[in-house]
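hey can u run this one w/ alpha-D-galactopyranose bound, need the C-alpha cells asap thx
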Amino acid sequence: MSLDLAVHEAFVTLTGRDPDSIWRAPGRINLIGEHTDYNDGFVLPFALPQAAYLAAARRDDEVIRITSVDLGEQFEATLGELAPNQDGWHSYLAGVFWVLREAGYPIGGADLALASDVPIGAGLSSSAAIECVLVEALNDLYDLGIAPMDRAKLARRTENAYVGAPTGLMDQAASTLCTQGHALFLDCRSLEVQQVPLDLAAHGQAILVIDTLTRHSHADGEYATRRADCEQASALLGVPALRDVPIEGLDERLATLPDERLVRRARHVVTENQRVLDACAALRADDLARLGELMTASHASMRDDYEITEASVDLAVEVALAAGAAGARMTGGGFGGCVLVLAGQSRLDAIGAAVTAAFVESGRAAPATFVARPAAGAGRLT
Ligand code: GLA
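ok here u go:
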C-alpha cells in the first residue's frame, strides 16, 4: 500500500473520521557541502522521493494524538505537558507543537497518523522529514501563513531545542524548499537560495546511493565536538564564522592555530565551501566530470581533515571509483550511512555489484542501493 493511503487508513482507525488532508515532506541527499551549514557556509542538497507522510486534522482541544504506521505505536499528550529533551520517536512531532507555541503561533491540538520510507540513521534526514511534514500541516490547518524559510527554521528549532541535536539548517531547508529536478544552493548566512537544475539523465549520468547500513550511535556527540572545534577555530582566527576565512592564503592563516586538529577542521570547512561554489559552476557548465572530482575531493577532506567517515563508507567510495565512478562521497552527518556515486548510467550496475562484492568479501552485509532523482519539497498532497 502506498504511504499516503497507509496514513489515511491509520488515521481513520485512530479517530473514526477522515483527516483534513495528507502532507508529504521528503528526505534529502546532500550533493556536496558537508558540515558547512553551521559555519555560515554553503550547501547543495536535493530532495529524495523517499518521504514522511502525515494525515492530520485539527482538534478543538489541546490534545495531540499520534499513531505511527511504521512502529504500530501511539502517543497522546496535552500541549501543556510537552517539555524538551524527551526521548522517543514522537519527540520530532511533539516538539513542533512546542516550538510553534513558543514562537507565539495560535495552535491547538491535532490528530496525526505518520509513516515514512526515509531510512532512519542513514544520513538522509529522516528526522527533518518528520519535523517538516508537521510544520507544513499545522501551517495549513491553522492558517498560520508562515513563509517557507521560516517553516524550515521552526523545524530546525525543533531538532535543536526540543530533540536536543545541535544541527544546522540544511536538512529542514532542503525538505521544505527543494523543487523537483533541482539541487538547492543555500547560503546559510544570507539564507539566499538558488534552484540549480540537476538533469543528470540528459547527460547519460545518474546518482547511485549506496546505504552502507552502518549506523553510529555516538554520532551526536561527535557532531557536537566538530561544532565546538569550528567555533574555537573561528574565535582564534578572529572571524565570526569559518565562512569568513578566505581560501587564498589558507595554509598561512591556519598555521597560526595552536593545534593541528583545529587546522584540519578549519581546512575542511573552508575548502568544502569552495567546492560547493565550484560544484554549482560545474553544474551550470554541464561539466559533470568536474562535479565528480569535487565530490571525491570532498570525501577525502571529510576522511582526512574532518575525520567523520569510517571504514564502510571509505570502502564503498574506493570501490565505486575503481569500478569507474566519476565521483563518490559520503553524505550527511557522518560515521556511516550513505555514499552517493556519480556515474554513467551504463556503469551503475557494475559499480553496485563491485561494492556489494567488496562488502560481502570483507564480512559486511550487502549494502542497499537506489538511484536518486531530485524530487519535490514538502507540501500538501490532497
Ligand atoms: C546533519 C545536520 C545538518 C548538517 C549535516 C552535515 O545532517 O542535520 O545540519 O550539518 O549533518 O553536513
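Residues 260-284 form the longest helix (25 residues). anyway lmk if its weird
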